Every structure is written in C-alpha cells, then in structure tokens.
Fold:
Amino acid sequence: MAERSTAAVDVADNSGDEPLTAKADQSTADGVAQKRERDTDSEEAQGSGGTERPGKASPPELHSGHKLARRYRLEECVTRLDGFSSWRAVDEKLRRAVGVHLLPADHPRARSVLAAARSSALLGDPRFVQVLDAVEENDLVYVVHEWLPGATELTTLLASGPLEAHDAYQMVSQVSQAMAAAHREGLAHLRLTPGAVLRTSSGQWRIRGLAVNAALRGITSETPQRTDTEAIGALLYATLTHRWPYDNDAYGLSGLPKDIGLIPPDQVRAGVHRGLSELTMRALANDGATASRHETPCTTPEELVRAISEMPRIRPPEPAFTAPPEYQRTSYQQGTYGRQTSHLGMGAPSSVPAPPSPLQSRTGTALKWAVSTLLIAALGLGSWQLADALMEQGKSEDTNKTQTTDSDDKSDSKAVAVKQLTIQDSAEYYPDGKPQHAGDVKLTYDKDSSTYWRTYSYKGGPVLAPFKQGVGIVYDLGSTQNLSAASIGLYYPGDHTTATLYAADTLSSSAPLTSMSKIATATTTGTDLKISAKNPVKTRYVVLWLTAVPEAPGDQFSGSGFKQAITDVKFTG
Structure:
C-alpha cells in the first residue's frame, strides 16, 4: 500500500504544528480494561487473509515510567511481540491517556509502520481511533494513538454471550461503512479482529489500528478489500453465534467442529436473525456456499454496505413491560364498610347484618340533597358578590387613572426557563475531506476552559474562502431538542470570527451544507460569541461552521497566521 503524502493541506502554514494535539486536562484513568491482543499463530492464520513475516530486531528495553519526547510516560505494557511493544501511556503535556506502539528504528518494519501511521492520521475519520503522532528519534520509532476511556472491546462484549440482533446489526453497519470510506482513500486494515472493534458508551462503534496493526505484524494481502470484508463477516458470525467461524478457538471463542465446514449462523444457534445470517455467509469466503437464496457474495466493504441497505431495518427490542402491582380494593370500596366481617374457618356463626348508616337511609338521602342545594346557592351568591366587588374596584381605578409601571409588568409575567442542552457526541466537520484536529473536538465541551480544538494557521484571512470554505464541528444532542441559542468560547481575539449554526440530519463529517437548515450567524472580535435563533429550531445534530478567523501570533503549536480555537460550547433551548 502506497504511503500517502503528509504535506499540509490548503494554504495552511503547519511549520511547528503538532498534528491532532491541543492543551488538555483529561483524566488518565482508563474506564475499561484494555485486554492484551491474542497473538498466537493459530489466531493469526485464520481470518487474517494475509501473511505475517517475523522480524529480526529485539524489542527495546523499556519499562514503566520511561518517558518519550519528554511528554509520553509509559505506564503498562499490553503487548510485547516480534520486536515491538504496545503500551498504555500518559501524555503529560495534555494530561490524558494515550496508547503507544514502540519498535527499534532498525526494525525491518519500522519504515512501513511510520508510513501506515501517517496515512491513517491523514484520514481523520472519527469512526477510527485517531493516530496522534508518528515519530522517529533516538533509535526508536513510536506511534501515539487515542486511548478511549469508556469504550469496550468486542472481545469483552462477547465474553458474556452473543449480541442482540439490533446490536449486531449496528456493529456490522457502522464497521462496514467506516471500512468502505477507508478503502476509498486507499487504506486497508487487514487485521480486523474482535480486539480491534470498540463500542463507546454512546453506542457508537470505533475501529482501532487502521493500517498500523497490520504493518506492525508484517501482514500484507493481494486482495485487501476481500480480506477486510471477510473479517467483517467473521465479526458478525461471532456476534450472532458466540462461535469463531473457523475450526480453531480464537479470541475467547470456540471454533466450529472440525470436518463440518462453514455452516450458516442460524444453523449454529436457534433464534438467529435470518437476514443477518444470510449477510454473514455473503461476506465470508466459503467456496461459493452463500445464503440459502444464493445471493452473490460480497467481496468489498462497499458491496457489504449496499447489501445492508437493502435489508429491512432491524429495530431495537421493545423494553420489557412490568405489570403494575394489582390494585387492592378496600373494604369500603367493596361495600362492606360498617359490616362485621365473618372469619371463615373459625367456626364463628355468621353475624346479623348491621343496619344501614343514617346517610344510607331515605332520610339521609333527602338530607344530602338539601345540603347540596344549599352549598350550590351559597357558591352562586359568593361568586356574584365577588364579581361585583371586582367591578367596583375596576371603576375606582379608572376614575383615579392609575398607571401600571414596567416593573410591575415584569414582576407579574412568568420568566421563560432556559434549558441547557447536553452534548452527547461530536465529530469534526470537513466536507472537503481535509480535517483540522479531529481527535480534539470533545475538548470543546469537557467543562475545562484550558482545553480546546484548534484550526491550522492559514496565510490568508480573516475570511477563509476561496482557499477553504470553512472549518467546523458537528454535535449530537442525543435526541431531537428545541435549540434557541449557542454560547461559544474562543481562544484567539482580534480581527473577527464569524460562525454559523446549521441543523443537520446526521453526525456525518462530510454531509453537504446544502442538505442542512441554516439557524443563525454571528460575528465577534472578542473571545465570546453568542448565536441566537429568531425561533427555536427542532434538531438533534448541530453544525458549528467557522467561515472567518482572526489573525493571531505564533505559539507553541503553530506560527503566526489566521487561526482560531474553540474552548467551550454550550447550547440552550
């Protein structure tokens, strides 16, 4: 696979600009135990579709506490294999957890690992775990990538059994779409295993190790699209059946019995969704034995995406209905009030029914009607007197010509409650395919004003067009909300910053602006930008689109030029 160019895009002046980094103050706690990848020969041989070449160099003698580039402190070694090691580390400059792959600079695969990491970083697709840095120094090559607290490996999810049909459908849909986008850019994974697929706390699926995992292990393939498609089929097979679709055990799953061949998932386990079972067989290489209706096999992720789109959508299961506790009628409601209850089985003679209470007799009924009539009359008289008093008071006020002040009006009117909307997820928005710092968008709503997402430094401005139409971020509010305003904290003052809000239909990074509804636009020369809509807009996804940025001096990240950084974003409804 050819190495992609790492040159700056557009007219950005990226000298001294560290890609995909920003000041941050994130916890180094990893909310989910990241399991060691299984690297036995049997697991590599099945489902990889490639060939692994052993390396000759020894792994670097490193230990916990060792620091790279005076910022990445190694914490725990999670993989040590074939001349390289993988670590959980802490970026002390940004104060967040990261992952690091390490190998000697003279390792036979060092050059290919660097090329794969730089190509993966340029993709900038938020569905992949982002590469943050790729460096060669002091006889070492190391690749730094995101570490996702709160994300769970598919290996861990499968430890408790197969997934529900809706979860399996979401997994294969999102992974297929992501890999189709990667192959359009000439990138392949070649090692899509359950350990490479993660589910975030918001239910989205992320893929780690794009191009890099295969380069570390020397895996290549003459048919990379077929290899990745078959790997997706194996993942789907595992989620539906809790079995690995080959005759060896791998990734904590039992393989299929030997000498029976590859059988459809719905024949392995009862209750498997028929459509997903057929889709699995179309994705797996199985000597032409596809689904029962003999559809054409899917040999590329793009074909798999089309096949999924032709299926009826699988909806999430209905929540289990819990019946309310049985309504207990009281003895009064059962008509036994005032009666003596007999205790069966005690041998006590049945008692004589008690006489009806006074209000249940004819005299009592007449008395109730009389009291009701008097109450109605009293209420009517009182209402008439009250209305008359109010009319007299109104006349008196008209005579004196008393005026009501504005303060009285304000005190009497009800204040409109402002509700702050919660941001559930986000992604960098770059319809031209050229991201800024996609890994840092979540720093814009982490409630820490010292962290931010930033643009590159451009030579022309403040208006970015025609060299670049704009830069931005798309936010997910979790559900459809009434959006009325946005408060945006900016890092650089001066000149002017212009931003526009759009209502979008998806969290896509590349959906055209023409498919969205414009909400409002605002401009500021300071560090606070307020955008207000004339009327509240119902939307789930909001795009914040910058079309003009101020001129700012050079700093530790980039040289002087036209640039901007977003520190805090708040939406209200």
In short: The chain has eleven helices and 21 strands. The two ends are 48 Å apart (CA to CA). Residues 362-400 form the longest helix (39 residues).
